[in-house]
Design a protein that fits this description.
Two copies of one chain form a homodimer.
Chain A: E1 8-13, E2 28-32, H1 37-46, E3 51-54, H2 58-66, E4 70-75, E5 78-79, H3 94-97, E6 101-105, H4 109-115, E7 121-125, H5 130-140, E8 144-148, H6 157-172, E9 176-177, H7 181-193, H8 197-200, H9 205-212, H10 219-222, E10 231-235, E11 238-242
Parallel strand pairs in A: 1-8, 1-9, 2-7, 2-8, 3-6, 4-6
Antiparallel strand pairs in A: 4-5, 10-11
C-alpha cells in the first residue's frame, strides 16, 4: 500500500448509523440510495425539476403539502396517501415535474442527505449519473465520503456496489487513494458486478422486496450507468442541479 | 431466492454500532475479531485457560488486576502498562495460562461480546476454530447472527471475510438460508479470499496498522483455518470452553 498523501482520500460508510465514525466535514459526501431515492432524484433533475426539498420525516412532508408544495413520499417502497408521487424514477416525468419544487421524503435516502449537511458539499449519486459525478469529483480536489443509505440502517448490496464503482473511477483517475476497508470491499463487489449489473443485483434483498410489491420495473433503469449528466447538490437545504459541466 | 422457512436464518452485522438493527435474542451470536481478539481467545482455550472475563473498559480491567486476576489488555494493538498480556494469540502460551482465569479487555472484541450477552448463546469465532464452530452451530437448530467487531465501529475486511466463510459453511450444510445483503457480500469476499487467505488479507487496513507496530507476526496463524476445535462460549459473563464435541 503506497500512499501519496497529496492524493485525496476515499472512504465508504455502509449505513447512516455509522456516519459518525466516517464523518469528515472537509470532504464531499456522496449519498447513494440506488433503489430508489438517489436514482429518482437524478431522474427528476434530468426531467427538469427546479429543486427538491429533502425531508426527513412525514410530519414535515405533510406540512409542506399543506403549504402547497408537490410532495413525493414513500415508506418501505409504497407511496403515502397524501403524496403526489412515490419514489420510482418513473414518477418524475417531464410533464409532471418541469420547473417544479418538490418536497421529497423516503425511507432511507433523504435522511442520509440531511445527515451530511455540514460537509463541504453533499452530492447525490446513482449509477445513472456515475461518470458525470466522478468527473466532477475529480475536478474538486477534496476527500470523498460515500454514504450508503442502506435499508433501515442495515447494509445493502446495491448501494455498496455503487460505492465500489465510484471509488474505482476515482482511484483510476490517479487523484485518490483509500485506506478504508469498506471501500476495498465495495470495489471487489463492483469488479464482480460490472459486467452484468442488473443480473448481479438479483442477489440484493431489496430487489426482492420491490418485486413482491410489483415495483421492480425500475431495475434496468437504476442499474444502467450514465443515462444522465446531472449532479444534484445540496445548497441551503435544497437539492439543486449543479450546472457547470 | 427460494427460502425454506424451516431453515435457520443467517445475518451478518458489520459493526457493533449496527447491532441494534440486527439483534435477535433467539439467535446464537458469533463474535468475530480476527485480528486479534477472538483468535487470541480461541488460542487461550486451546492452551488450557480455564475461563476468560471479557471486560469492556479499562477501569474494570484495572480493578480486576487489583483483585489479583491475570489481566490481558490492549488498546490500538498495544499492551497496556498494568497488564500481564496483550492480545497476540502468542501471548497465551500453555505455561502462562493453563488453568488460569484471565480478565481480557481489547479495543473492539470484548465490547462486542458483552453487547450480545442477551442472545441465546454468544460464541467466539475465528478462522482457527471455523470448522468446529460451524459443526456446533449446525447441531443447534437456531438462527445465527455473526457480529463483526470491526475497528472502532468501522467496517473491517478480515472480520467480514470470516463472516463469509462461516455463512458459506452453514449454508452448504443445507440447514440455513440468508436474506441478508451483508451475508451475501461477505460470502462473495470469502470466495475471492479462500484460495490464499493470508495473501488476500494484505488488502486489510488493520494488517498495515499491525505491521507498523511490528505486530504482524500473527497473520499466518490468524488466517489459517482449523488449528483448534475449541468453542469459547459466554456463560454468566465468563467465557468458558464448550466441551461436548
Amino acid at each position: 500500500m503506497t500512499i501519496n498523501k497529496e492524493k485525496n482520500k476515499i472512504e465508504v460508510c455502509y449505513s447512516p448509523a455509522l456516519y459518525p465514525y466516517y464523518r469528515n466535514d472537509n470532504a464531499i459526501v456522496v449519498v447513494s440510495d440506488i433503489l430508489r431515492a438517489t436514482t429518482a432524484i437524478c431522474a427528476a433533475f434530468e426531467n427538469g425539476v427546479k429543486q427538491l426539498i429533502p425531508v426527513a420525516d412525514l410530519d414535515e412532508a405533510r406540512a409542506l403539502k399543506k403549504r402547497g408544495f408537490l410532495v413525493a413520499a414513500e415508506r418501505d417502497g409504497l407511496v403515502l396517501d397524501f403524496a403526489d408521487f412515490g419514489n420510482s424514477p418513473f414518477n418524475f416525468s417531464p410533464g409532471q415535474v418541469k420547473g417544479a419544487t418538490i418536497a421529497y421524503s423516503t425511507t432511507n435516502g433523504t435522511q442520509a442527505i440531511r445527515m451530511a449537511s455540514e460537509a463541504r458539499h453533499v452530492a447525490v449519486g446513482a449509477f445513472i449519473n456515475l461518470s458525470a459525478l466522478a468527473s466532477w469529483l475529480i475536478s474538486q480536489d477534496a476527500d470523498v465520503v460515500i454514504l450508503c443509505a442502506g435499508w433501515k440502517n442495515r447494509y445493502n448490496l446495491e448501494d455498496s456496489v455503487f460505492a465500489g464503482a465510484l471509488s474505482n473511477a476515482l482511484i483510476e483517475s490517479g487523484g485518490f487513494y483509500t485506506e478504508c476497508d469498506a471501500a476495498v470491499a465495495a470495489m471487489e463487489l463492483w469488479e464482480l458486478a460490472r459486467e452484468d449489473l442488473t443480473g448481479y443485483m438479483e442477489k440484493a434483498a431489496h430487489r426482492h422486496r420491490l418485486k413482491k410489491l410489483g415495483l421492480d420495473d425500475i431495475m434496468e433503469y437504476c442499474n444502467t450507468p450514465d443515462s444522465t449528466r446531472v449532479i444534484p447538490l445540496l445548497k441551503d437545504n435544497f437539492l439543486v442541479e449543479h450546472k457547470d459541466y
